From TrEMBL:
Domain CTLH: 55-112
UniProt xrefs under SMART domains: CRA (SM00757), CTLH (SM00668), LisH (SM00667)
Descriptive protein name: CTLH domain-containing protein
Function: Involved in the proteasome-dependent degradation of fructose-1,6-bisphosphatase.
One Pfam family per UniProt: CTLH
UniProt cross-references to InterPro entries, sorted A to Z: CRA_dom (IPR013144), CTLH/CRA (IPR024964), CTLH_C (IPR006595), LisH (IPR006594), Ubq-SigPath_Reg (IPR050618)
Organism: Dissoconium aciculare CBS 342.82
Length: 240
């Protein structure tokens, strides 16, 4: 009877080649938007960049603008790349407009006079924006209506008394979520992989570990955590 191989032996036998690892690293740098690192890595490994550095930098500028709350600037840059990106993706376009509305409200809430009884008048620009940019989409689906109502509720409650499902909209991780969605949309528009292969491999690895533990396979050792965090923004914060 052949001896059973240990988990470590199986891992060693399944190790990818150096060229495969280099490709996965390059794919990650390009997909996630690290142009300088991608160019340097290409020089060191003699791998051809799968995307022009300028294309990567465009996505980085858009990502940085969204992370900083400059949504209008980001939308302008997206349309400069290709207006069809937002024209063909209504949920993403709505989420960008919703985020822009949130940023308008945030500026008002952060103002030193936000405790003033007359501060309701300060919300007028946000209300007009909501009526012109978001309200026209509401009849097309309840999901849009719910998202708009939740966002408008930011103007009703004091910051320290907001329900959690409303307060979560002010969390900056929402900017990151929209930025990731935009990045994927641009990559899809360019016919490129819309997600780094590394992320897919991590999910596959987590699924395999979970399946092995459910099957009570004794050879799987404890302590295989990847230490991945989770976003504090719920899936229902926006329409996608």
């Amino acid at each position: 009877m052949r001896p059973t191989k240990s988990f470590e032996q199986k891992v060693d036998e399944a190790k990818p080649s150096k060229s495969e690892i280099n490709w996965i690293v390059m794919d990650y740098l390009v997909s996630e938007g690290y142009p300088a690192a991608a160019e340097k890595f290409a020089e060191e490994t003699n791998i051809k960049l799968p995307s022009a550095p300028q294309d990567i930098r465009e996505r980085v500028l858009i990502r940085n603008a969204l992370h900083a709350g400059r949504v209008e600037e980001a939308v302008y840059m997206i349309n400069e790349i290709d207006p069809q990106i937002l024209d063909d993706n209504h949920p993403l376009h709505f989420n960008l407009m919703q985020l822009q509305l949130i940023e308008l409200i945030r500026q008002i809430l952060d103002h030193p006079d936000n405790a003033n009884p007359q501060r309701a008048f300060a919300f007028e620009p946000a209300i007009v924006f909501a009526q012109e940019q978001l309200a026209p989409r509401v009849p097309t689906g309840k999901i849009y209506q719910d998202a708009l109502e939740r966002t408008m509720a930011l103007m009703i409650f004091p910051v320290d008394k907001m329900p959690s499902e409303v307060a979560v909209l002010l969390h900056t991780s929402l900017r990151s979520k929209v930025a990731s969605d935009v990045n994927r949309a641009i990559l899809q528009n360019r016919g490129q992989r819309d997600e780094a292969k590394l992320r897919q491999l991590v999910r596959a690895r987590l699924w395999a570990e979970s399946a092995a533990r459910e099957a009570k396979i004794d050879s799987v050792p404890a302590g295989l955590s990847l230490g991945l965090g989770t976003s504090s923004v719920g899936d229902d914060a926006m329409v996608t």
